[in-house]
């Protein structure tokens, strides 16, 4: 690892970090991309990647890599979705292709993240396996990162730090004031596993059963007979009701309509639990003197769908633009880079608020979900409008 000052340190090489590193390396900056894991590595996720995210990766030059991964069967193309309401009403809706004709996929993160991380390195970023410990702050300005690698602690200086280290971000935890962290009402906990299952159409399946609201259970196909399966729930509700996610998933599997489809006795593989931070919480800083937060480190997950990959990529791309402008002007102050917070607000806030409102409504009035699903069954354009508002 070099001891000289870098232009940018990106902490975390998940979708957000690898995208920011790619965009900045392509602009010619000296980028150090850190992650505590070597790649490929798993990340607990439902693995659903919308067409908009794929298009953004195409823009960064990844189209061929993605098409090859689809040919290898690592990304499984989707045609639509199934929504099942509390009373069992079913809505099938077809996905529209992305604006440039791309598909949505279910892409196990062990493959998906490795493609983006590799692309960052191919674009010129230097990757290093290291555990970030804390930002180095001098005169209220971030000037680098303290990291641990090969059992030793190093201080690495940089003109700018991008915190892309996910939900448990040490960058966010150290830079945001203690009273400005995510609260339980804007967080969730979710469990994911893989399972062998028959009759898998190319649709993501969402089950909004009453005992799981304000969360849902999902079955997302990663092949003809294999799926990512799981369920998630808002954290305050989860703590209050003292739920057990593994037990809830077992109860879901025992439902006759699910049980009859299971292969190999419904044996669950790679069971893992992780947290989600929603983008619906107000008044959180994403920019500091010398540092920017992106993706889950900032907390950009949709509170209704639990989807965060698209926003991770969008925020990373916007952060890279703002960083480029600030680095060129040699001014990485919060006031110069605050435009990033405005961009995030303009691109995400309305959908976060709508989704949060829907999530609360569905929790208190499950019959509204039944009503909506029945209405949308009769009116496919209403279903499309609903999908695009999520
Ligand atoms: C159960 C579950 C299901 C989900 N399903 C979906 C879905 O189907 N579709 C969707 O769009 N979103 C989904 N999400 C959300 C999605 O996983 C995240 O929004 C997405 O991973 C955010 O990407 P990121 O790059 O910001 O963070 P991450 O993917 O979490 O990447 C962060 C990276 O930082 C590294 N890191 C962390 N701490 C350190 C440290 N101290 N030092 C060095 N490196 C560090 C990690 O190893 C990791 O590689 C789900 C989340 C959960 C928990």
What does this structure look like?
By secondary structure, this protein is of the alpha/beta class. It has a domain of 223 residues: FAD/NAD(P)-binding domain, CATH 3.50.50. Helices cover 38% and strands 27% of the residues. The strands form 3 sheets. Strands 1, 2, 8, 9, 10, 11, 17 and 18 form an 8-stranded mixed beta sheet that branches. A 7-stranded mixed beta sheet has the order 6-5-13-14-15-12-16, with helices on both faces. A 3-stranded antiparallel beta sheet has the order 3-7-4. The longest helix is centred in the last third of the chain and has 26 residues. It is globular, with a radius of gyration of 21 Å. 46% of the residues are buried. The site of flavin-adenine dinucleotide has 40 residues, from helix 1, strand 2, strand 9, strand 12 and strand 15.
In short:
This protein has 390 residues and is an alpha/beta fold.
Features:
390 residues; alpha/beta; FAD/NAD(P)-binding domain; 7-stranded mixed β-sheet; 14 helices; 27% strand; binds flavin-adenine dinucleotide
What's the helix and strand layout?
Layout: E1 6-11, H1 15-26, E2 31-35, E3 48-49, H2 51-59, H3 63-71, E4 76-77, E5 80-84, E6 90-94, E7 105-106, H4 109-122, E8 126-129, E9 131-138, E10 141-149, E11 152-163, H5 170-175, E12 187-196, E13 203-207, E14 216-221, E15 226-234, H6 235-241, H7 245-254, H8 256-259, E16 269-277, E17 287-288, E18 291-293, H9 295-298, H10 309-328, H11 334-337, H12 339-364, H13 366-378, H14 380-389
Helix pairs in contact: 1-4, 1-10, 2-10, 10-12, 12-13, 13-14
The chain binds flavin-adenine dinucleotide.
Flavin-adenine dinucleotide (FAD) binds next to helix 1, strand 2, strand 9, strand 12 and strand 15.
């Amino acid at each position: 690892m070099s001891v000289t000052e870098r232009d940018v340190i990106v902490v975390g090489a998940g979708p957000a970090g690898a995208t920011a590193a790619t965009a900045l390396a392509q602009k010619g900056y000296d980028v150090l991309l850190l992650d505590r894991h070597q790649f490929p590595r798993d990340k607990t996720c439902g693995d659903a990647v919308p067409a908009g995210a794929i298009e953004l990766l195409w823009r960064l030059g990844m189209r061929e890599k993605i098409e090859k991964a689809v040919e290898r069967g690592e990304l499984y193309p989707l045609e639509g979705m199934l929504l099942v309401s509390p009373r069992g009403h079913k809505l099938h809706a077809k996905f529209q292709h992305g604006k440039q004709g791309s598909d949505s996929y279910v892409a196990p993160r062990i493959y998906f993240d490795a493609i983006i991380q590799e692309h960052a390195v191919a674009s010129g970023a230097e990757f290093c396996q290291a555990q970030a410990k804390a930002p180095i702050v001098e005169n209220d300005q971030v000037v680098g990162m303290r990291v641990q690698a090969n059992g030793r602690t190093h201080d690495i200086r940089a003109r700018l730090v991008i915190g892309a280290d996910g939900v448990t971000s040490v960058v966010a935890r150290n830079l945001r004031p203690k009273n400005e962290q995510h609260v339980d009402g804007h967080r969730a906990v979710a469990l994911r596993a893989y399972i062998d299952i028959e009759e898998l159409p190319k649709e993501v399946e969402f089950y909004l059963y009453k005992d799981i609201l304000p969360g849902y259970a999902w079955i997302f196909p990663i092949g003809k007979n294999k799926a990512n399966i799981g369920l998630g729930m808002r954290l305050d509700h989860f703590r209050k009701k003292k739920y057990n996610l593994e037990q809830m998933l077992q109860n879901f599997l025992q439902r006759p309509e699910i049980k009859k489809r299971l292969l190999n006795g419904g044996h669950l593989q790679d069971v893992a639990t992780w947290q989600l931070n929603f983008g619906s919480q107000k008044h959180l800083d994403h920019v500091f003197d010398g540092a920017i937060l992106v993706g889950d480190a900032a907390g950009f997950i949709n509170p209704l769908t639990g989807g965060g990959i698209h926003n991770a990529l969008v925020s990373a791309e916007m952060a890279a633009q703002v960083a480029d402008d600030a680095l060129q002007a040699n001014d990485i102050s919060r006031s110069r880079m605050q435009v990033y917070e405005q961009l995030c607000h303009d691109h995400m806030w309305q959908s976060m608020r709508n989704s949060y409102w829907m999530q609360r409504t569905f929790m208190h009035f499950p019959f509204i979900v039944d009503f909506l699903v029945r209405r949308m069954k009769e009116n496919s354009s209403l279903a499309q409008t609903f999908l695009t508002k999520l």
